[in-house]
Amino acid sequence: MDQLDELRKRLEVVHDLNVAGMVLNWDQLTYMPPGGVEARARQLSTLGRLAQEWFTSEEVGRLLEDLQPYADSLPYDHKDAALIRVAKRQYEWARRIPPELMARFYQHSATTYQTWVEAKTKDNFRLVEPLLEKTLDLSREVASCFPEAKHPADPFIEASDYGMTVELIRPLFAELRQELVPLIDAITSQTPADDSCLKQSFDKEKQIAFGEEVIRQLGFDFQRGRQDQSAHPFTTAFSVHDVRITTRVRENDFSEAFSSTVHEAGHAMYEQGIDPALEGTLLAGGTSAGVHESQSRLWENIVGRGEDFWFYFYPRLQKTFPEQLEHVPLNTFLKALNKVQRSLIRT
Fold first, then answer.
1. How many folded domains does the chain comprise?
2. Global model pTM greater than 0.70
């Protein structure tokens, strides 16, 4: 179908522009020297603006309109129907936001990240505070493009988890809070688990090697992915054949790098499992942010903190760090790894 092929080609250009920006962003967060931030911010701004202009063009709008009868004639779960439906939804969302505004947002985000890293290293919030205030101002400016939204956060939630709103999320959180707060109170009122076995000196390179061997056995394909280090762990997918993760390693805390590695591998294995036939389309990025996070938390917490998991891997960890763990029983290690405590750090 000529019109569908034309839509695919145009969306592929948008995809490639976005991926080019993701490559530059990955580089900034991993290897780029701090001095490159000004040029990188400009580059990301340019690519973001071009992608926005291509996606919100009149040509794309016309193709989506012309293809709607074809989409309506197909089963709801047909790939063509899904592509047209998702493209139209994202197109209508993106059309609300001027490309110039998105360009400013991209440029500001790149600059803010570099300052955040400096502020984090120096433990000085004031360095980044004015930039975060500007981030909120830009976010409000984006939200103002959706005057019908009941809450300023709704447009951003919709972009990540279509169909969800503040109005729907708040009762859900309230229900969870009703059960979780008493549970946490009950646990933390008892003598806390001793996690000192995790706070010894663990060689960073050995931590990375052990974590990579674990996720390799879990299913992360290193022929189609890699792991690096960054100030905050993240996953980025340039294609289903190139999915990259990062971790953060601390010599005096084994759990941080290990949990981050397994968590990000959960995201990455979800991306690596996407049908290659969807490559370059809007259907290749996962169902939603919520589903994506469910995969990462499943591997990190349900699998990666479980007794059966460590019954297999703990002897291997002890061989990696005999001085630290040779005389630490598995049960002691498990209690330490599953220690419950309140924290301002969500991970």
1. 3
2. yes
> Comparing C-alpha atoms, which of 283, 235, 291, 225 is closest to residue 15?
283
Three-class SS of residue 57? Answer: coil
Domain range for 92: 1-146
Residues 48 and 113 grouped into a single domain:
yes
Residue found by looking up tokens 């917490």 in the block:
301
- pLDDT for the residue numbered 113: 94
For residues 5 and 106, membership in a common domain is answered with yes
pLDDT at 344: 84
The average pLDDT across 190-197 equals: 96
CA distances from 327 to 129, 189, 255, 315, 331 (A): 46, 29, 18, 11, 12
Separation between Cα atoms, residue 96 and residue 90, nearest integer Å: 10
User: Given a cut of 80, is residue 192 above it in pLDDT?
Assistant: yes
Q: Which candidate in 212, 264, 271, 300 is catalytic?
A: 264
Distance (Å, rounded) from C-alpha 169 to C-alpha 218?
Answer: 32
Rounded to an integer, the average pLDDT of 155-174 is: 96
Question: Rounded CA gap, 59 and 70, in Å?
Answer: 17
Both tokens of 179, joined, read 């059960």
- Give a yes or no: residue 347 inside a domain: no
Indicate the helix (H) or strand (E) that contains 243. strand 242-247
Task: Look up residue 107 and give its DSSP letter.
Answer: H
User: What is the pLDDT, as a whole number, of residue 347?
Assistant: 60
Burial of 236 from C-beta contacts in 10 A (0-12 / 13-18 / 19+): buried
Domain's final residue, options 190, 216, 251 = 190
- Bridging pattern class, strands 235-239 and 242-247: antiparallel
Assess if residue 286 is contained within a domain: yes
As beta bridge partners, residue 255 has none
Q: Position 38: which residue type?
A: E
Mind listing the pLDDT tens digit for each residue in 273-319?
999 999 999 999 889 999 999 999 999 999 999 999 999 999 999 99
Instruction: Decide if 264 is catalytic.
Output: yes
pLDDT at 98 over 90: yes
Contact assessment for residue 235 and residue 244, using Cβ atoms and an 8 Å cutoff: yes
